[in-house]
Amino acid sequence: MVKRQLIMEKALELFAKQGFEATSVQQITDYCGISKGAFYLSFKSKDELIIALIDHFMMQIISDIDYLVITSKVEELLYDFYYAIYHTFQKHSDFAKVFMKEQSQTINKELILKMKYYDKLMEDSILSMIERLYGNEVNETKYDLIYCIKGFMNTYTHLFLFHDFPLDLKLLSKSLADKTNVLAHHSTLPFVSKELFHTMEPMNEKITKEQLLETIEQKIGEMKESIEKESLTLLKQQLQEPIYSLAIVKGLLENIRNHPHCKWVSYLLRRFYGF
């Protein structure tokens, strides 16, 4: 196992038991069976490790949800959305517990900004889902609906993360899809306006072509020879000098979408190209 990955996995187990603040670098290195020097070769600080964990988890879930919103059948989209959210939180319950606790307790400025950034990306995916599902019917209430859906996600997650509530994923997903449809079709008095929603956007949200190229170059260096690596190399060349049609670009993105090193790059490229 790569040492950086080992540190992240073992640290997460400690964070889930003790929280971020109560867990020291010494405890992490002892638990991993490595020296402090080995730790600092992978991470400059505990805060950098925490950010890496948040990046890893949120990049996975946001890229998956965004793809689901684009590709699921409309009649199944709400159910698929809620099921994917809760299945992911159930699968990664250790991280989910830490993440949700730290959102309410952290005073780390970088961590707060990171959480706001990913929260906004999730809101964008939810808004796309709402517009695909209900169209002009919810023009006045769609921004309120975003916060209603986020409220469902947060509140019901607490039931099984912190109260050991029995979880029937299928029933929960159907129930929340039903509640969301009721709100969408019958709610008439909005609170959150378009203007208010956009005032809460974080600064520097859009990634530049240069940042994309840097990210792709890093991922290429981490990968073994494969169809995914070849596709990622072609996508890098496309950014530098466009020669392929959008249909070919979409095909290359589909090639890399499920590779663990490429999932986030695929998401960023879809946003960059407007897919």
Shape: globular
> So what's the oligomer here?
single chain
Helix content: over 70%
CATH topology of the largest domain: Tetracycline Repressor, domain 2
Distance between the termini: 35 Å
Give me the secondary-structure category: mainly alpha
- Please report the first level of CATH classification, the CATH class of the largest domain: Mainly Alpha
| Number of DSSP helical runs | 14
Biggest β-sheet: count, sense, barrel?
none
Number of self-contained structural domains: 3
Query: Can you name the CATH architecture of the largest domain?
Result: Orthogonal Bundle
Q: Spell out the helices and strands N to C.
A: HHHHHHHHHHHHHH
User: Unreliable runs, pLDDT <50, ≥5 residues?
Assistant: none
What average pLDDT do the residues reach? 86
Strand runs, count: 0
**How big a fraction of the residues is strand?**
under 5%
Radius of gyration: 20 Å
In short:
This protein has helices spanning about 5-20, 25-30, 35-40, 45-70, 75-90, 95-105, 110-135, 140-160, 170-185, 195-200, 210-220, 225-240, 245-255, 265-275. The chain has about 280 residues and is mainly alpha-helical.
Helix-strand layout with pairing:
Elements: H1 3-18, H2 25-32, H3 36-42, H4 46-71, H5 74-91, H6 93-105, H7 109-134, H8 142-162, H9 169-186, H10 194-199, H11 209-222, H12 227-240, H13 246-256, H14 263-273
